[in-house]
Write the structure tokens for this entry.
Amino acid sequence: MLRSGLPDHYLTPDDIAAMFKVPKETVYQWRKKRTGPPAFRVGKHLRYDPAAVHRWATERMAADEAA
């Protein structure tokens, strides 16, 4: 279900890869290099807050336009 255009559940690395049409390995590299959207661990699983992913994408778009 969507709320304000965002999913109402935490996203997985597979969701992020699908969302940005990149390989899942790229998502893991973003995390390792601290260049991707912020994630947190639930046990051994990575999860992403949809609002934080949206903010990250918006910041990246703004940075790209300013360059």
